[in-house]
Amino acid sequence: MVSSATFGLIPLFSLPAMKAGILTQSVLIYRFGIGSIFIVLGMVLMKVSPKITWTQFWRIAVLAFFSMAGAVTLIYGYNFMPSGPATTIQFSYPVFTCLMMMMFFHERLTWRVAIAIVLAILGVMGLSGMNPADFHDFSFLGLGIELMAGLTYAIYLVLVPVLKVDEVESLSLTFWVFVVSVVYLVIWALLTSGVQPIPNMEVGVNLMLLALIPTAVSNLTLILGLRHIGSTMTSILGALEPLTAMIVGVCVFGEQLTWVIALCFLCIVISVTLLILKK
Question: In terms of Cα–Cα distance, which of 146, 106, 155 is closest to 128?
Answer without folding.
Answer: 146
